[in-house]
Amino acid sequence: MSTYIDQDSVKAVADRKDIQPCFGYHPWFVHRYYLGEQPSKRDHYLAVFAPKKAKQVAELEALLPQLPDPEPFEPLLAQMRENIKECGGMVGEIGLDATARARIWPPRGSDEPAQMTPFKTAMTHQTAICKLQLELAEELGVPASLHCVNASGATMDLLKGHRGNACIHSCGGMSPDFITQLARTMPNVYFSPSVLITARLGDDVVRAVPRDRMLVESDTSSIGDITRLIWAATVWISTCKGWKLETENVGGDDDDGEVFDEKGHVRELRDDETWTVQTLERNWNRFIGR
Q1: N or C end of the chain: which has fewer CB within 10 A?
Q2: pLDDT at 6 over 80
Q3: What span is annotated as the signal peptide, if there is one (predicted)?
Q4: Using CA atoms in the order 82, 7, 101, 233, what is the torsion angle rounded to 10 degrees?
Q5: HEC states along 175-208?
Q6: For residues 23 and 137, is the Cβ–Cβ distance under 8 A?
Q7: pLDDT score at 106
């Protein structure tokens, strides 16, 4: 998950061959930023949190000293552009979250937990920040990873007209029917199930993802758990889709995902002819433009 403090850390490891660097600003943090002319701190947070009742305004007034001073987003976007030009990679994790409440984060290195506020960042503000980052991904010809929580329709609207590849990470809490609709109308959108998040929604979510749009992820920040959780999600995908699963002694086919009928015409693979890892690797290479 991209945060407001880790862009330089990502850049520092971006030259490793086993890393795909991602630069971007997650929706949990975008309340910190303003677009256009600099507002006062009070005006900024009144606009971003949009409290409707006098009691909520009073709560916000009391929290103002603890909230960070608003920062302009344009310089951060310009730095994202330079980082991606220099390091390659992709834009992410960006997106929309209609559920998350803004947090007051402790200083870096502190063991103190983040303080949860009662306020949510206005969807209009989240959308504006996310749209700028999506436009940057399209400008640079790189894919984007999107966070989506309780914002399926807004995410679909945001992606309309976007010409680059985008991945809905952990399938964004979307229903099987919505995934089917989104995949049908937007051939550049991919989905990456995880066992930590997507498994809560049931097997039908995975079954709804088209073969050529399936990716996989761990959705964890614990380095020691990444491999285990990615493999667990891979096994789960194989089971849900009825695909063959590679093992240490059994591998995929060197057929580029194509099979032919008796007349020599390419036909669609059956599920029981599909290798899981090979399919995920092929999809990943297409997603990142290899």
Answers
A1: C
A2: yes
A3: none
A4: 100
A5: CHHHHHHHHHHCCCEEEECCCCCHHHHCHHHHHH
A6: no
A7: 81
Place of tokens 């930023």: 33
Kindly report, residue by residue over 255-267, the tens digit of the pLDDT.
Answer: 556 655 555 545 6
User: Rounded to whole angstroms, how far apart are CA atoms 152 and 95?
Assistant: 11
Please tell me the distance from the alpha carbon of residue 152 to that of residue 162, in angstroms, as a whole number. Answer: 16
The pTM (predicted TM-score) of the whole model is 0.91
Residues 6+ apart with CB under 8 A from 196: 170, 218, 219, 220, 229
Would you give the distance in Å from CA 220 to the centre of its chain? 13
- Average pLDDT over the chain reads 92
Structure confidence at residue 202 as a pLDDT band (50, 70, 90):
very high
Residue (of 217, 134, 127, 205) closest to 173 by Cα position: 205
Cβ-contact 41, 94 below 8 angstroms:
no
Rounded distance, CA 233 to CA 256, Å?
23
DSSP letters for 5-56: S-HHHHHHHTT-TT---EE---TTTGGGEE-SSPPPHHHHHHHHH---SHHH
Copy the structure tokens of residue 277: 């890892």
Given a contact cutoff of 8 angstroms between Cβ atoms, the answer to whether 169 and 162 are in contact is no
Q: What is the pLDDT of residues 9-28, one digit of tens each?
A: 898 888 888 889 999 999 99
